[in-house]
Amino acid sequence: MAAKKKTRSKKKLPREKRCLEQAKEKQFLEKTKRREETEGKKVLINPRDQIKMSEVIGDFAAPLLERFEPEASAKKLIPLAVFAWDLAMMPEEEHERFLDELMEGLGLDGVSASGMREVMYLLVDRKKKQFGKYIKYTGLQSKGFRR
Predict the structure, then answer these.
(1) Which of 93, 106, 108, 133 is deepest in the core (most CB within 10 A)?
(2) 85: helix, coil or strand?
(3) Which residues, given as ranges, of the chain have pLDDT below 70?
(4) Which ranges in 1-147 belong to alpha helices (H)?
(5) How far is Cα 126 from Cα 120, in angstroms, rounded to an integer?
(6) pTM > 0.70: yes or no
C-alpha cells in the first residue's frame, strides 16, 4: 500500500496568508504610531469614505502599463506615472524644469528624452481630463524630488 500524501487543507493557506497580512499590518501601524509621536504628524490610514490613492494611480497608469512589455514592470512605470501626476498638479511654467530634472536623473537625452517628454505630457493631459477631480499630490514632492 502506497504511503498517503501529506497535503495541506485548502482552508489553511488562506488563513495563514490572512494571519501573515494581519501581522504585517499590525507592525506597520505600530511603526506609524511611533513615527507620529516622534514627528508630531497625524497619519490617516484608509480614511472612511475616501478612495485609496494607490487605486487611483493604478487606474491612471493603466494605459502606460498596457503599452509596454511585461518586463517594464510596475516598479519602473508607476513612479513615472506618479511623477506625471504631480507634474500635472504644478503650474505649467514649472513643467519644463521638472522634466529636465527627470531626464537628467534618468540619464536620457536626444530622442530618448523627447519620447519620454511626450509620454509625460500625455499622462499630464490624461490627469487633467480624466482624473481632474482628484486634487491630492502623491507625496513625490516631499520625498526630495523637488529642489
Answers:
(1) 108
(2) helix
(3) 1-13, 43-48, 69-73, 137-147
(4) 12-39, 53-67, 74-89, 95-106, 110-130
(5) 10
(6) no
